[in-house]
Specification:
Rossmann fold, four-stranded antiparallel beta sheet, about 240 residues, branched-chain amino acid transmembrane transporter activity, Branched-chain amino acid transport system ATP-binding protein, ATP-binding, binds adenosine-5'-triphosphate, binds magnesium ion, ATP hydrolysis activity, 10 helices
Length: about 240
């Protein structure tokens, strides 16, 4: 569904990602993991057109999308749940969700809104409340709901579990898995590596702007380097 090759993005003279190759097969969950500053958010923002990569190709459903405007990429079926959620705190829950569908002209927006409310009943209860009054977990649900309102074929999530209590984190991972099982392909950036590798089919490890390892998620989870750096598993002397 998504084939990235040689993707490079810089901030001025700072090369944040340096020639990334990554594939997301249709129907899968692909997890992108890496330490702070590795370039995960830069990768996500480059995919959805918020950043302009200097080099490389981004093929989405067979079409080259590098350089397209963000709203065109949304229209093709890719939407991002951004790092830090970025919901509009001064707008209601309902308005935030409607924002997610602002590019759509089809007649099924209301049906999709009902679907989001079925998935997240708390959002329906609070639909007239301002986004900023929601708890962290509810704001994350709102951010996911807003992205779903664009009816994505590929959903990108940038650290959806960040800053959430453990029980809420489990809920979010469950929701991600359900969304995938219902047919949406997912690219997931996570700091919660153990849980991300558990739900993912494939995983990529990013270090200082380069992919250093990739493969089936269960194999990446067994890799000694990954265990030591991200899972706190292997001992230094073994
Ligand atoms: N707006 C910016 N201007 C300049 N440099 C930036 C900017 N945003 C990110 N960087 C740099 O680019 C590199 C990659 O940052 P990025 O935010 O993509 O990492 P990340 O893997 O998402 O990290 P985190 O886990 O902290 O979210 C870092 O060295 C960072 O300091
Ligand atoms: Mg980031």
């Amino acid at each position: 569904m998504l084939n990235i090759s040689g993707l490079s993005t810089s901030y001025g003279s700072i090369k944040a990602i340096k020639g990334i190759d990554l594939d997301v097969p249709q129907g899968s969950i692909v997890s992108l993991i890496g330490a702070n500053g590795a370039g995960k958010t830069t990768t996500m923002n480059s995919l959805v057109g918020l950043l302009k990569p200097q080099a490389g190709q981004i093929k989405f459903l067979g079409q080259e999308i590098r350089g397209l405007a963000p709203h065109k990429i949304v229209n093709l079926g890719m939407s991002l749940v951004p790092e830090g959620r970025k919901i509009l705190a001064g707008m209601t829950v309902l308005e935030n969700l409607e924002m997610g569908a602002y590019q759509r002209k089809d007649k099924e927006v209301q049906a999709d809104l009902a679907k989001v409310f079925r998935r997240f009943p708390i959002l329906e209860e609070r639909k007239q409340q301002l986004g900023g009054t929601l708890s962290g977990g509810q704001q994350q649900m709102l951010a996911i709901g807003r992205a779903l309102m664009a009816r994505p074929k590929l959903l990108l999530l940038d650290e959806p579990s960040m800053g959430l209590a453990p029980l809420v984190v489990s809920d979010i991972f469950k929701v991600i898995q359900e969304i995938n099982q219902e047919g949406t392909t997912i690219l997931l950036v996570e700091q919660n590596v153990r849980q991300a590798l558990k739900i993912a089919h494939y995983a990529y490890v990013l270090e200082t702007g380069k992919i250093v390892l990739h493969g089936k998620a269960e194999e990446v989870a067994k890799n000694p380097r990954v265990m030591e750096a991200y899972l706190g598993g292997a001992k230094a002397d073994t």
